[in-house]
């Protein structure tokens, strides 16, 4: 598997570099906006409300737009990572494998979080960053939490990558590939949607119930692993022709 990871390293490095350049350019733009007074800050945050309400309460109009951009960049990178995996493993150019799908999914999630952090650091003022930093755990604990969360997202990207790979190897024409992707998106999307709603509801509360939230995260991982296993089996049983 080390050889497979090495074969995919350069394309993924290029993708990650593009995303980081965009994030850094966005951060520079936010710095210019800060220096010129274009972006405003709100120092009054809501209390006694759900987590998302607290976050939104400190965002001004300009900061909110920047926050949406940061989230869009992370989502775009995640989607591009999945598409890149499908492209690299088409026609067995580089053999697909659940291990490489997970590891590159994990790496993609880490870079997406890094890009989100780079842009988000320009959305808040120095006072807000200092205030939030004082409430966060130590550096090592924070790094470990990010790594674990990225691994969690990595299971979803692993499943998506293997589903795309299965759709490609089972398609005999571009039209068939499009049909496969639409059907897979609908089928897997229903599962992901239901689990996302449950997971989001468990954490967007005034006081998070760790047992409840943990249960939803375990269910998410189990579902992602199941979708990945099904896609992997379908890909292995497919005929060798590809679109």
Counting structural domains, the number is 1
Q: What is the beta-strand fraction?
A: under 5%
Residue ranges: pLDDT <50 for 5 or more in a row? none
Distance between the termini: 25 Å
Count of alpha/pi helices: 8
How would you state the average pLDDT, rounded? 87
| Class from secondary-structure proportions | mainly alpha
What fraction, in percent, of the residue positions are helical?
Answer: over 70%
- Sheet with most strands: none
Shape: globular
Number of strands: 0
How many whole angstroms does the radius of gyration measure? Answer: 20 Å
The topology string of helices and strands comes to HHHHHHHH
Transmembrane segments: 12-33, 66-88, 100-120, 140-169, 181-201, 213-232
Keywords: Membrane, Transmembrane, Transmembrane helix
Description:
The radius of gyration is 20 Å and the shape is globular. The chain contains eight helices and no strands. It has one domain. 26% of the residues are buried. It is mainly alpha-helical. It has helices at 2-36, 51-57, 61-88, 98-120, 126-135, 139-170, 174-203, 210-237. The longest helix is centred in the N-terminal third of the chain and has 35 residues, at 2-36.
Short characterization:
The protein has helices at 2-36, 51-57, 61-88, 98-120, 126-135, 139-170, 174-203, 210-237. It is an all-alpha fold and 243 residues long. Helix 3 (61-88) crosses helix 6 (139-170) and helix 6 runs parallel beside helix 8.
SSE map:
Blueprint: H1 2-36, H2 51-57, H3 61-88, H4 98-120, H5 126-135, H6 139-170, H7 174-203, H8 210-237
Helix pairs in contact: 1-3, 1-4, 3-4, 3-6, 4-6, 6-7, 6-8, 7-8
